[in-house]
């Protein structure tokens, strides 16, 4: 057996004195604390420009540099001890301010404590005395500006960086990479200051200077260390992924990589680079993700998410969160959310609100009542129109409110604020109002709040650009709740509008008219595609003829004539036309399948299935859009479903083909499940669980919410079968710390289970009732507990 042991060894550097790296001449390569550093332009000019001393007055810059970085030698492996405290048998207790600072800055990077403002001030004083760094040198001025920045004094930091910009742009002796770094920091600080003041500086004077560059932005020392870190991470990951069958690798090289990251942080502190110091967190996130993805390690994923949160990489956080939440329960656990709340205390004052909005948006439903109330008050305070309100964050706050409406406390204040925005015509924020108004439970509003709510709707309907606020469901909800209100009748009765169709479908008020309007829309869109072949057109609203139109009672008494005379001829045209996109053909087959479920005329049934089978061989327009919703295989799967419902193939044949297809190509699974869901409406005693069991086990591994929810919803097929116990165990195991999205499948399943069988799901129901997500607890109480007790 081969055993590879990764040790912390000095790294050989493949550069020599005089080589050019990032446009600068290498004059010395230094190895310190098992990491190498490249010192560029080791000259009296650099020394003088940085520290304010000439070569005669001071040692070479590289000597200063080596002496500085060695100050933190005793902190080796400290970052590693934060991740794996049991592996590092060392206590990091110091009396030296330099080491205390070095420890606290790593704590801050990992979100464990506040920025060590006092300690860095003492460190800078010590460095100025020890290395004779003048206050008026570039380093001295930059240190002072950075202290202001991390103390939350943006204006003072911005002003100091403008002074630095004026100095460095008039000094040709300063290396370009130092100039670039100062300009980047200055640009970012000015942007943050502008955001805090609800203003915009154009052109940004720092960006103007950057745009004059003819070279690529770089920072030789920092770039070299980062490149080395990624090289070593890649080497370790490659070795682990490609190790031999009988090879055991002890260690993954994490210690040396974290030590390099520590020293990178200390270097950025010395140079005074705010941007690079903050990017250390992003670097840790990238490294941890590479390890997490390789070893599928939960701890690495936790650190990755925390670092993304701390570095403000919110889009990346959400993407990874969505990837993990199906398979890693920790992402929604109280323990992990509490860790993020602790991280809030480490944020710089002007960045804290952005982090709070992010938590409120993503985890508002998971917060305990007292903490949630704090967040809600903070959100309302931040969108209240006042002299110091935060315009930069307002849209994000309004966007975060709808998902928290079920537990919203001060709805009166929210409605009052929204009315104030409308009265002042702050239209840039109106877009998010629709989602809020459409999702407010108006039945729970007091009389006073309902009047304010209605006044908001009325105000919106008077706006010239009212279309940017979709309040269709709000209008319908008002009419449903208070039928005597006639203010919106003109909107609701206007034919072929979204509001009219939805209103007619509510409680089947006028399902025939709704059906006719939808078919008219289908005809218009069919003709548009025929007139403009090969042109992809998107629509704001998609209409689907779902099962509701085809229950036996409704079909026979209300919709059959319209379907036979108006829809079926149109569907046959769509299926046979080469100018129609494949997603339209798939939609048609689904609707025709619903018709096959209830139509008894054999001639009509035969005509339908013939058209469907021919569509498999007809030409169609390729969908070249990014979404590419349906494929030829999706169409074939729907044809199979239709043939089963028409009695042309057996359920065993149907499931066998679906199992074969899902095993060959997992991208077909979702559409196969859509087809199985419709097939279950067929009255077939042989429609069994045996083959679906294998499809279930295979598909359940897919990291996809839609697939998972469809499987859970249809798992009632296993009740009172040989597979029931195993499926229930799977569902129960995955019911811990469910996300709201995944819980929907459970709720739909439990609503279908009869009162005689619901006892089998008691453990699952109990887990849902105790879920950290408030919305899940509300749904369980509303749709499961109450319904079962009625």
What does this structure look like?
The protein is mostly helical and 790 residues long. 61% of the residues lie in helices and 3% in strands. It contains 37 helices and five strands. The strands form two sheets. Strands 2-3-4 form a three-stranded antiparallel beta sheet. Strands 1-5 form a two-stranded parallel ribbon. A hairpin with a 2-residue loop joins strand 2 and strand 3 (24-32). The radius of gyration is 32 Å and the shape is globular. The termini are far apart.
Q: What is the mean pLDDT?
A: 86
Strand order, biggest sheet? 2-3-4
Percent of residues in beta strands: under 5%
What's the total count of β strands?
Answer: 5
**Which geometry do the CA atoms define?**
globular
Low-confidence stretches: 1-44, 54-59
Question: For the report, how would you describe the main beta sheet?
Answer: 3 strands, antiparallel
Rg to the nearest angstrom? Answer: 32 Å
Please identify the structural class as seen in this structure: mainly alpha
What is the overall number of helices?
Answer: 37
Helix proportion range: 55-70%
Distance N terminus to C terminus? Answer: 66 Å
């Amino acid at each position: 057996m081969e055993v590879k042991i990764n040790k912390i060894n000095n790294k050989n550097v493949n550069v020599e004195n005089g080589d050019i790296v990032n446009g600068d001449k290498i004059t010395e390569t230094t190895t310190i604390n098992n990491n190498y550093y490249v010192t560029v332009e080791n000259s009296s000019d650099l020394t003088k420009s940085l520290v304010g001393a000439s070569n005669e007055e001071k040692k070479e810059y590289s000597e200063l540099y080596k002496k500085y970085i060695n100050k933190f030698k005793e902190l080796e492996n400290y970052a590693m001890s934060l991740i794996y405290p049991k592996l590092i048998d060392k206590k990091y207790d110091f009396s030296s301010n330099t080491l205390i600072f070095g420890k606290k800055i790593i704590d801050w990077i990992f979100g464990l404590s506040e920025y060590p403002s006092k300690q860095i001030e003492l460190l800078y004083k010590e460095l100025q005395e020890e290395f004779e760094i003048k206050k008026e040198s570039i380093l001295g001025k930059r240190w002072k500006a950075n202290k202001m920045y991390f103390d939350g004094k943006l204006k003072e930091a911005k002003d100091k960086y403008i002074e630095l910009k004026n100095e460095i742009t008039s000094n040709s002796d300063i290396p370009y990479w130092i100039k670039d770094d100062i300009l980047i920091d200055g640009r970012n600080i000015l942007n943050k200051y502008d955001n805090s003041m609800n203003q915009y500086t154009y052109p940004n004077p720092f960006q103007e200077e950057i745009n004059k560059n003819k070279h690529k932005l770089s920072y030789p020392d920092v770039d070299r260390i980062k490149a080395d870190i990624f090289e070593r991470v890649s080497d370790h990951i490659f070795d682990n992924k490609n190790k031999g069958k009988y090879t055991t690798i002890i260690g993954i090289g994490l210690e040396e990589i974290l030590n390099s990251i520590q020293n990178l942080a200390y270097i950025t502190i010395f140079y005074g680079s705010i941007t690079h110091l903050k990017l250390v967190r992003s670097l840790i996130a990238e490294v941890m993700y590479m390890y997490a993805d390789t070893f599928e390690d939960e701890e690495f994923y936790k650190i990755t998410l925390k670092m993304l949160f701390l570095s403000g990489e919110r889009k990346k956080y959400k993407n990874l969160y969505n990837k993990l939440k199906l398979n890693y329960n920790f992402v929604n656990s109280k323990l992990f959310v509490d860790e993020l709340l602790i991280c809030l205390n480490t944020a710089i004052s002007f960045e804290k609100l952005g982090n709070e909005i992010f938590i409120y948006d993503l985890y508002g439903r998971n917060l305990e009542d007292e903490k949630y109330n704090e967040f809600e008050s903070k959100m309302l305070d931040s969108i209240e129109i006042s002299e110091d309100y935060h315009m930069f964050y307002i849209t994000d706050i309004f966007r975060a409110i709808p998902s928290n409406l079920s537990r919203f406390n001060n709805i009166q204040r929210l409605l009052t604020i929204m009315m104030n925005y409308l009265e002042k015509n702050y239209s840039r924020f109106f877009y998010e109002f629709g989602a809020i108004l459409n999702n407010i439970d108006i039945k729970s509003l007091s009389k006073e709040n309902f009047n304010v709510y209605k006044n908001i709707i009325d105000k919106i309907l008077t706006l010239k650009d009212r279309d940017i606020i979709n309040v269709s469901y709000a209008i319908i909800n008002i009419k449903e709740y208070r039928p005597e209100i006639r203010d919106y009748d003109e909107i609701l009765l206007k034919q072929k509008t979204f509001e009219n169709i939805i209103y007619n479908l509510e409680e089947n008020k006028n399902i025939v008219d709704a059906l006719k309007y939808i078919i008219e829309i289908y005809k218009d869109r069919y003709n548009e595609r025929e007139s403009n072949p090969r042109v992809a057109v998107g629509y704001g609203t998609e209409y689907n003829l779902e099962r509701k139109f085809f229950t036996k009672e409704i079909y026979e008494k209300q919709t059959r004539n319209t379907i036979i005379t108006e829809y079926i001829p149109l569907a046959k045209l769509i299926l046979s036309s080469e100018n129609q996109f494949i997603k339209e053909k798939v939609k048609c087959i689904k609707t025709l399948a619903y018709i096959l479920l209830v139509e008894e005329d054999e001639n009509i049934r035969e005509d339908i299935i013939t058209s469907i089978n021919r569509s498999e061989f007809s030409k169609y327009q390729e969908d070249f859009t990014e979404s590419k919703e349906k494929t030829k295989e999706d169409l074939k799967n729907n044809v199979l479903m239709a043939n089963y419902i028409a009695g042309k193939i057996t359920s065993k044949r149907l499931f066998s083909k679906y199992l074969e297809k899902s095993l060959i190509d997992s991208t077909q699974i979702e559409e196969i499940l859509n087809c199985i869901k419709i097939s279950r409406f067929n009255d077939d005693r042989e429609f069994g669980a045996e083959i679906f069991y294998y499809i279930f086990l295979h598909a359940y591994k897919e990291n996809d919410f839609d697939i998972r929810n469809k499987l859970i919803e249809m798992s009632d097929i296993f009740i009172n079968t040989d597979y029931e116990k195993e499926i229930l165990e799977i569902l129960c195991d995955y019911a811990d710390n469910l996300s709201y999205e995944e819980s929907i499948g459970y709720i739909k399943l439990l609503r279908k289970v009869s009162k005689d069988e619901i006892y089998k799901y008691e453990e699952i129901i109990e887990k849902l009732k105790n879920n950290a997500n408030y919305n899940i607890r509300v749904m369980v109480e509303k749709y499961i507990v109450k319904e079962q007790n009625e």
